[in-house]
Design goal:
The protein has about 350 residues and is of the alpha+beta class. Helix content is about 30%, strand content about 25%.
């Protein structure tokens, strides 16, 4: 299954672990507070040093736009402002920023604004770096549920996601407006010079597309959460990986560990070859998918990107739900780099406000 329509990435083509799209529909992001994200940074601030850390609540803003506003309010150049991760625009989100601020200078005053508020300001000895957060807590409200004469399916899907997790797809946000960031990828690989940010978007989109294709193939084959002979496996809660061939364990033993959620299959984020590598059936699958996207894989390697691994299965933690009249409210925690929309797609077909079935 090719996920490209010309230069457009179509995430709607991705296979469902449940077998087909859920029969439940609902409206997501009718209001910013319907999609709440709270960053889990877990860094102990020492209340001393030349960096001022800001716990910021933003509404209807991208993280780069929020950074620009903080820069304008403080006079600190954006390159001296740190953040851990990008957060959704159409949402109400809370996350940390850090900025260089002289120790003897009084704290800046923050104006009252509807789109961004500074909730806490504390000092720390170091700048906040990208990827420093552990994850994010999500609270999502899906409004105006409709069940297509199958209300029981929603309860079964919720229980399945809590017990078994979901395919760890990259969400549509990774591929830019209308899924067209692959045009940047192809331009970069053809020799076009891009800004640092746009280059990052181009590389990320290409790697994410190929990873999604590999997970999609495994979902269709029924082994996205099961060991495939020759797999590379990832330890739960870490980036530690090992090759099946080096593990000295039988397929049954690995399957039992995956049933306990101790391990997950780890699919390829392509780039320059790195060990450990797959073998046998798992290597054949990667080769088959790689042949469909050979141009992008060659471009990633030529760009000097190191290959990496990412778990094919995503397990939302502290997963809970409630019904409030015709609305479904979901709450869960995901590790950094995971997409709440990949959880949601296994439960409801979420429409934008005003969109019809």
């Amino acid at each position: 299954m090719c996920l490209l329509s010309g230069d457009v990435v179509d995430v709607d083509r991705l296979a469902y672990a449940r077998g087909e799209a859920p029969p439940t529909y609902g409206t997501l992001r009718a209001r910013p507070e319907d999609f709440c994200v709270e960053e889990d940074c877990n860094i102990a601030l020492d209340d001393a040093g030349e960096h001022l850390w800001l716990w910021v609540e933003k509404t209807g803003l991208t993280t780069p736009r929020a950074l620009e506003i903080v820069s304008g309010l403080t006079g600190v150049h954006p390159r001296h402002i740190g953040y851990a991760g990008l957060k959704d625009r159409h949402a109400l989100t809370q996350q940390w920023f850090s900025l260089v601020w002289p120790i003897k200078s009084p704290l800046p005053e923050w104006p009252d604004r509807d789109d961004i508020r500074v909730l806490t300001a504390r000092r720390h000895g170091r700048k906040l770096k990208r990827g420093a957060h552990r994850g994010n807590t999500f609270t999502l409200r899906v409004r105006d549920l409709s069940f297509q004469d199958n209300r029981e399916a929603l309860g079964a899907d919720l229980e399945r996601v809590r017990a078994c997790g979901v395919p760890n797809y990259f969400g549509a946000q990774r591929f830019g407006r209308d899924g067209r960031n692959i045009t940047l990828s192809r331009a970069l690989f053809a020799g076009r010079r891009l800004s640092r940010n746009r280059r990052g978007f181009a590389l990320s989109a290409a790697r994410s597309l190929i990873f999604n294709a590999m997970v999609d193939a495994r979902v269709r084959a029924g082994n996205w959460d099961r060991p495939l002979v020759g797999d590379v496996c990832m330890l739960d809660g870490s980036q530690s990986v090992f090759a099946w061939a080096d593990a000295g364990q039988s397929e049954d033993a690995l399957a039992q560990r995956m049933d306990r959620h101790d391990l997950h299959p780890a699919a390829l984020l392509p780039g320059k070859p790195q060990l450990p590598a797959t073998s046998e059936a798992a290597a054949d699958l990667e080769a088959d998918i790689g042949a469909q996207y050979a141009e992008l894989i060659a471009g990633l390697a030529a760009a000097g990107v190191d290959s990496a691994r990412r778990a094919t299965r995503l397990l939302p933690r502290d997963f809970s739900w409630s019904f409030q009249e015709d609305d479904l409210v979901l709450s869960f925690w995901l590790p950094s780099g995971a997409f709440a929309t990949s959880v949601l797609r296994e439960i409801v077909q979420a429409r934008a406000p005003g969109e019809h079935e």
